[in-house]
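Hello forum,

I keep getting stuck at the same step: I have a sequence, I want structure tokens, and every attempt I make locally crashes halfway through. Rather than fight my setup again tonight, could one of you with a working pipeline run this one for me? It's a single chain of 325 residues.
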Amino acid sequence: MGKRYRRSERSLTAETVETRFVFVALSGHAVATAAARMVCAAGDRPCIEMGSRRTHEQAAVASARAAYIAGFAATSNLAAGSCYGLPTTGTAAHSFTLLHDDERQAFAAQVESLGVGTTLLVDTFDVDSGIRTAVDVAGPSLGAIRLDSGDLPSQARAARALLDSLGATDTRIVVTSDLDENSIASLAAAPVDGYGVGTSLVTGSGVPTAGFVYKLVARADDDNRLVAVQKKSVGKGSIGGRKWATRAFVGGVASDERVYVDHVPAAHDDERPLMTAYVRDGEVLEVPSLAEAREHCRRALGELPDEAMKLSAGDPALDVDFVTR
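Reply #2:
Ran it on my machine without issues. Output:
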């Protein structure tokens, strides 16, 4: 009995390491999914991750990484930049402006420190006055302004007209203010050059947790043979047996996803495996680089049918079929 316990303890330790690794991976899925929707809504305009103050300090770094993998251009989180080599960018806070005697002093201090290519926040008091002061301080080569309040589409149009009239035709307009994929989509026709996204991104944009729940589906018997197990609870039943997931294609476009139960699927040209081992027997295997993960996400999104890009709620874009022997 003691020998059996020790063997189980070693197995449990390895399984615990693997489970924790999977949970860490899944924890970024809500952020990455939200980020992918926002990138889709933004089109060619860059999105900047700016959600650090809305979540735990370690979660903020993980969120920045997940957002970058899903297509965000940069993060304002310097720790994420240091840990993962993410591009970092940012702007000033309203509190920075309020620390100075007036807006002109705040802008002058920022430009002196960061150069005329910086992004000046112009809506602490009055947007029109803020833009005029920003261009007067930094000159027509000012990098960008940020709008963080009011009716953003009309504010952006008025800001663009004023910047152009002041000769700052190359000064970009970045908008923030609790943006999500829907508000980003509503700004498609506005003269906006980029989006800073915080709260909605790091909280999953209306879906704050990924819909993944751990369920035991198989166990080893006394002879170390795999035995399928399953729950039969009302509304929470599970399908027993080890699973292998694939994505099927028709004409190069994803048509459905298949979950094979208790058998490894045969290789097909029109079917791509979706599972990759990252931990085995408690040992972390080689994992892809950040650039590889970002490219994989880009290709995976490119496989999806057009209806998968809709922002409105609805049925899953791909059906899931369970394939048994």
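DSSP finds eleven helices and 14 strands in the chain. If your local run keeps crashing, start a new thread with the error log.
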